[in-house]
Amino acid sequence: MSGALRNPDFARLCAGQAVAQLGSRGYGVAIMLWVLAVSGSAATVGLVSTVTMGAFTAATVPAGWIVDRFDRRRVMLTVDACSATAAAVLAFCAWRGTFDPVPVLAAVSVLGAGWAVRGLAEDAAVPQVVEREQLGAAYGLFEARGYATGVVGPPLAATLYGLGAALPFAGHAVSFVAAGAAASRVRTPLQAPRVHGPVVERPWVAIREGLRWFAAHPFVRTTAALTAVAEFVVNGCGLVVVVLLVGSGAPSSTVGIVLAGAYGGGMLGALAVPWLRRRVPAHRLLVLSAALGALAVLAAATGSPVAAAAGYAALLAVTPSWSVVVTARCAELVPDEVRGRVGAATGLVTSLPAMFAPLTVGVLTTTVGAASTAGVLAALLGGVLVATAVSRTVRLQAGEPLARRAVLGGEPVDEFGSGYDGVDRADALS
């Protein structure tokens, strides 16, 4: 991991986005506190959250085209500028002390869409700034960064909010400025030269090409489906733990400490991934991650708040092993020219179930109880374990060397033998 950080361009990308991510983690707490205080309506809080997530989801697929079509450094700078403006609008509204739906909903929509575009741009740029053997360490550092900001961001935002409602939003605006300043200093080109030269593509044609690439490659689509189920479990398990803690009479401060501790477990797990990847074969590490995750969720099925809290921390600790192995392998397999669009398709597949996890788990805990709901989640992760263990695609392609290209009958054949080389010139020029 230190090797990746010794790369100055990667260090700038990572550090700048860490500051912005710190603000984004705190934003979730600050927006709920402020909207609830000025509107007095939990439904309004739900509306703001839904609009934010809706904008993120709606922007995911076109974000892939943007990341592949335009210079990624400029995309990052543009998104950071727009996001800083949106956060400043929220700071102004909070300073005034009134909830005006039009500017607030517009601002949170810009932030949600910006997160989709910025995240894809950064992920797609990583293989251009680090060596292939450093990909796992780089993505592991990203995972650790996400958990670390999850530990620090919410309490920091709550403290700033106590000093002044506008402060966490103003701080978030500054964080985007810092991220943009760091990205502007990256000197390495963040896109590979386009082999086929400049092509003026219609957006929907380019998006369709990325979706076709995603659908044509077994490892990418299979791991995306398995990750979608795992993300549903991870998102739902947090709510189960909160329900068990609150039901046992634990104060809100205890709930906060438990969640922060779980994020700390995730951070430690992410930092351990490079060490694990050097010692455990990729497929075995995926199976082990799913198995330990299922056992961790089963701890919540006992109905014990203490066991549930420990299990949730263990679940977040093993999750990065899965995420880093899959993300690094997909970065090796996907050509740079379609990396953003394939990442967008993958993100859409994995994020949609996670969006509905809180609602689904909330209904289940109300009808069958938190312990039984945890049992259902453990069974889902057990299904991921079995599918990962028996999948020939995952077993053979999780860690094998990059494909050799052959020429059969004069046509390029990719490593999956599909005969599709990622570029449809007729569609691109139509």
Automatic annotation (TrEMBL):
Segments traversing the membrane: 31-56, 77-97, 160-184, 224-247, 253-273, 285-303, 309-330, 342-364, 370-390
Location relative to the cell: Cell inner membrane
Membrane topology type: Multi-pass membrane protein
Keyword Amino-acid biosynthesis listed: no
InterPro entries: MFS_trans_sf, TM_effector
SUPFAM superfamilies: MFS general substrate transporter
Keyword match Cell membrane: yes
Keywords: Cell membrane, Membrane, Transmembrane, Transmembrane helix, Transport
Cross-referenced PANTHER family: ENTEROBACTIN EXPORTER ENTS, INTEGRAL MEMBRANE EFFLUX PROTEIN-RELATED
Stated name of the protein: MFS transporter
Protein species of origin: Rhodococcus indonesiensis
Taxonomic placement: Bacteria, Bacillati, Actinomycetota, Actinomycetes, Mycobacteriales
